[in-house]
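Hey everyone, long-time lurker, first post.

I ran two proteins through the pipeline my lab uses and got sequence/structure pairs for each. Pasting them in order. The first:
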Amino acid sequence: MYIVANRIPVAVDWQDEFENRFRQRVGQIDLQAGFVSMQILKPVSEGAPYVVFTTWQDEAAFEAWIHSEDFKLSHQNPLPKEAFTGRPRIEKHQVVIST
């Protein structure tokens, strides 16, 4: 399995809108070949980022998605810069142990 963590620092006043953007797209990513799951984690500590975890069968499936038309559509209407307190950070991982 291949896991991508997108850490996104969202301003408090924009958290509801940020979450609503994902709710409006629920199910779209599920149609992508090799997609396994997605979790959106809301921070419970002040200043911590949201974390969007996506799980893929392999790196090739993730790469195919980020080059897909659906990916472009899902990112075509971003929130304004003031919605974020910093830049997002992407981390990519291979699962070596799962229980």
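...and the second, right after it:
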Amino acid sequence: MVAADVVDLNFNYPSLPEQGDALREALRQLAMAGDIDSHLRYQPHAGRLAERDIIARHLTCQHFAPDAENVLIVNGAQHGLAVTVMGLLRPGDVVAVDALTYSGFKVLAALYHLELAAIPCRPEGPDLQALQTLCQQRRVRAVYTMPTLHNPLGWVLNTGQRQALADLARQHDLLIIEDAAYARLVSRPPPPVVSYAPERTVYVTGFSKNIATGLRVGVVISPPRYRPEIERAIRATTWNTPTLISSLICAWIEDGTVARFETQKRQDARQRQQVAREVLCGLPVVSHPDSYFVWLPLGEESRADRLANALMERRISVSTAEPFCVSATIPQALRIALGSVPFDSLRPALLSVRDAVEYEQYR
């Protein structure tokens, strides 16, 4: 989080103007429901089966129809990643990750003493030949992947890449951890990687980016053989996700609120991307039309930390590549989050970023 007087282009917590009123109404309906007393009691570690069934149907798409028994409700996607790591990996395990990857997974890996092995990033996705070579040289236990709206690079892997990743995982007996935190923002995504290798893929998603970050409800979809260990990790960390919030989310799924918000968020993300492309035109921006962030590589003589400090002096917060970087050499680049600032404030903030970048390049 950043100070109230800072324009936040660092973190993404997109929200819509109507969401506050929707939450008030949902809480009122929840208070009037007949089973309100049940929220005062412990619940199954994986969540109530009726809610898991609602979520399973919500996530069903082409080539992917999860069984409610394999759906585990958690306290947000970050918690989903944590219980997956806790339950299925051990200290010292080697996990292949993109050379630029989600910073939250890096934190988990450090806490649980995992060894992250960097896979080079190409414009279209990870270098799978490099992953193949790594698996031939090392005992790799798992691969962590964001195939649909990669954070921070924004790529969406095509079906051929997804199949190739699944084939490689089978060949080398890898656990696949598929992070789909941003996937619901893509209008027509390919089938998830879990549909290509369901027996070895743990699929993790949530309702933060497509609905609201404060509603800490996430989902883990696990192969049956992994489910008991992940449930044990849920028990050890939170016992169960509070049903006050999971029941609210499920009610929104059933009455169409989630679908409506997702449609509006996709439109909002595309509009913000358009503003970013207009303002940053001519700079080497890397992004996806449905993404709430852009990646901005800098010139050879530029220093991202110096640029970020200069922007902070203007009360604008951005991220450098360092939190995302796994390889030894940190690229000089910025990740610019588009989802947190009011829409009317986005263009002037990005103009300030452009001015600072151009000044840094020609100083």
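Reply from user beta_strand_b:
Welcome! Quick read of the second one: The chain has eleven helices and 14 strands. The chain has two domains: 7-18+258-358, 38-255.
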